Structures
1.
Amino acid sequence: MTDKPSRTGATATQIAAALRTDIIAGAFAPGTVLRQEELARRFHTSRMPVRDSLRILEQEGLVILATNRGARVAPLDAAGFREISEMRAVAEPLALKHAIPELTNRQLDQAEAILDQAETAAADRFGALNKAFHLALLAPCQRPRLLSHIAGLSDLNERYLHLAARELDYAARSHAEHRALLAACRDRDAERACGLLTAHIVSASEALLAALRTAD
Amino acid sequence: MTDKPSRTGATATQIAAALRTDIIAGAFAPGTVLRQEELARRFHTSRMPVRDSLRILEQEGLVILATNRGARVAPLDAAGFREISEMRAVAEPLALKHAIPELTNRQLDQAEAILDQAETAAADRFGALNKAFHLALLAPCQRPRLLSHIAGLSDLNERYLHLAARELDYAARSHAEHRALLAACRDRDAERACGLLTAHIVSASEALLAALRTAD
DNA sequence: CTGGCAAAGATTGGATACAAAAATACGTAT
DNA sequence: ATACGTATTTTTGTATCCAATCTTTGCCAG
């Protein structure tokens, strides 16, 4: 937060980014009401940019906005998670198919570096690194709208990951699937890579849904 | 819409809706700059709700918002259309798969009524009826986020349809494919219906891309 | 004549001010 | 004691105002 003498620019985006990371990290419980004035004080600004940021987050599905009734942090439920996973399972392979021909060795190395970090990092960084790895592979697909769609889904997904990140076998399995996916990408084998990616998203979804059921 | 004494409520949404239909209908040329003050006069309000509405439309991809530089109607280009079509081609079958078990005969009849209208309606209504037919089939899928995603893509798609709606063989082919799709839905044959839907979106995409190339 | 620079105008972003609606608290009547 | 109605308070939505940035126009130098 670089809120010192910033008298100009696009602060709504910055506020949205800060709130986004907070919501994803679970700093607000689902259903928490977000008061405009309170957020304005917190970011040393007026309510106006806050309102803009809430609209942004609403479209991303992180907050729910009711007219004259304020904003609430979007709830988390199994049905919503399944829906997000289904959408990821079709959108990400589409991006990967077009990304693979464009992937450079340097980009593959960067993706691998993220994997290395993920395997040693603390559990609370698992979600962010997971998202970073996926996007590193998909970024070169040259489809900006698709990418931002996937990025939004990744954010939503990450909220749920915090609920089961401590499941160690889930993390181990995810890492293994990531390694296999990366290998397929190195071979420039789009067919295999997309299949692995779909399977990875489905298996992660099923594992987390099972964890949610037991955690009930 | 022209209700002047409306001193309360959520006017930003209404302004956004009005602008949305205008942009989709092609009332503004792509790239047109949208001045806040001008829109405020037009809707008999201040710039504030206009700003909110522009944010909404930006998230939907209908306008592009540059900081300190105003809002422009999003441009139309072949690459963008192809990207949208690809996303529709994976998202809509996903929705249809889950909608088919929920589809009632009444809903199928309503979809057919839309088709009947589409075949006799004027060319400028083709896009709207096309969108209505697709959403009528997909609506019962019980996945609100997926549906709103598809609705947004349909709006973007509709902008392009105006460019080729007068291609009569395109319209005829689209109608025939819609009929076949509807028949598969009546049979509750999800496999066949999803295949037809994918093929329909791909063929429509290719036809329009070809029309764009010749129109060059 | 052309290119850059500067001042004036236009336009957006943000802050403050005001009005309406929701939420809350309180009091009264049953 | 509870339920309902009203007044108060809180919060959001809209309007107006100010500051900062972008644009445009005109001038001057090369």
2.
Amino acid sequence: MDILDRDGNGLTEREFLERYRAGDYERPSVAVDMVIFTVTEAEENNYRKLPEKELRVLLIQRGAHPFLGKWALPGGFVRSNETTEQAAARELYEETGVDNVYLEQLYTFSDVGRDPRTWVMSCSYMSLINSGQVQLKAGDDAVGAAWFKVSYRLLRERKELIEGGYVKALQYELKLSSNYGELTAVVERTVTATETSTATSYTIVSNDGLAFDHAKIIAYAIERLRGKVNYTDIALHLMPKLFTLTELQQVYEVILDKELLKAAFRRKVADLVTETDHYTENAGHRPSRLYRRRLEEL
Amino acid sequence: MDILDRDGNGLTEREFLERYRAGDYERPSVAVDMVIFTVTEAEENNYRKLPEKELRVLLIQRGAHPFLGKWALPGGFVRSNETTEQAAARELYEETGVDNVYLEQLYTFSDVGRDPRTWVMSCSYMSLINSGQVQLKAGDDAVGAAWFKVSYRLLRERKELIEGGYVKALQYELKLSSNYGELTAVVERTVTATETSTATSYTIVSNDGLAFDHAKIIAYAIERLRGKVNYTDIALHLMPKLFTLTELQQVYEVILDKELLKAAFRRKVADLVTETDHYTENAGHRPSRLYRRRLEEL
DNA sequence: TTAATAGTGTCTCTAAGACAATATGCT
DNA sequence: AGCATATTGTCTTAGAGACACTATTAA
């Protein structure tokens, strides 16, 4: 054993680790919170028209303090024998029964006092599943779970010059609606730019019905989703195995909350999908070719 | 007080919180690890030529077990009265003396066993500073700190079809060099795509001289930096107050590790900068106009 | 004068925006 | 026949790539 392998106390690494006892300084609890998105279809009275798509997120009504009766993201504490990613997959499976779906870490929220009980950080994840995969088993629990329709819109924009920079504040209205009612929150994204720095922070301006800082987490997830939709095939994880290009376009539109041009859209997604020989039937109008997600790489 | 505000034990939220005691299940330590980038100039023997830029990252040589003598990212544990962001800013200040710089959360790493002592998660941050802001005070500590030149290159690419999808593995060579020697690691990014999911994971293939999983964190940071350089003004945080467009282009090139076309580059960054009336002097060739980061919004 | 960089002009190529035209199953 | 959607064509516009040309200093 080389002398260089010994520390100031003359211990080797093995000896050091054998003697190591975790200090008794305070440690946080770490939870994962899941923003689980899916897309469903609204009922359509005209059988010849296509149903509208709706972006939905899964929430759970709290049956205990704190935030008793409020709606929260599904989640739970991370265990010492698993990664946050594994914890997220586990929670997702427990909550929805789905497995092998798109899962992405978003951000770790750690505001002091974000949980009134104790020191809890939240490592948030976003998951995209197609509604065919999951039974919408709302209400089979004493404490209910429900898919809330998502709307996220810019409410107002404020720009202020400060010495050596500016502050730009964007307020977004987050509206979540389901049979259980409507939840509304206003989340502000503030960008502070100075000579040498640029910092972005989120704050909850108002909040009616959502637990903890979950309005912030959902807002963050929607922005990540909107961003990635434009340069990845992420939205395809929201589709069933076979789908039409119009359906795919509707999903893009409901995520981005804006209308897209048909021709340009088709060109753009052309190499994200593979065409099949199947067509829609009995739709009351011209049949449409069905596509699936392209898995062979370019 | 409404009866509805009481939980299964008949407690209000206030009563619940007063009685609440944190459970004694295990909690992780949470550290922040900082990937601090700057750009320096290599010495140039020909006084008429422009010096080459180098991307550098700050590392600290460990003076204690575990990984005694290895190089690690600066960092430290998060305290219960601060956010991870505040902890990152605090560590950054302690390590470099700089303040009010660009700081961005990257990813929370939580692999089981990533720290041999105990359960430690790492919430990683990236910071960009210009080398003028900081004294390169390497060696003023018993345990040294040093700025390592960064090279990160694709080494090999493997693509494999599996049932219902594919696996794509990209191996990158991370080379860090300074007066203290050269550290080399190979990090693999694996993308596994199936019918319903796409998952990306990082693994360390080989590692010579870096502590913990820090090779992974640095690789992740470089990829984030490379990605953001193309669609934000993030690179401007690496520049001094006044700079030439050629210098800015050199910084882009050293980050992206590829040459850019001058005319196209200037068009692209035109609205990220503001021109000044100052010029370089005594450069041995035609003077160049100096620019600064544009702070007025478009 | 010349080395070396600064700065601009312009042609091409590709992708996106805009909109129109044509195609087709179903009732 | 005609509704409603499917699918393709093409003109325009914006931006990136490629490359060449001109400008300017200090030694």
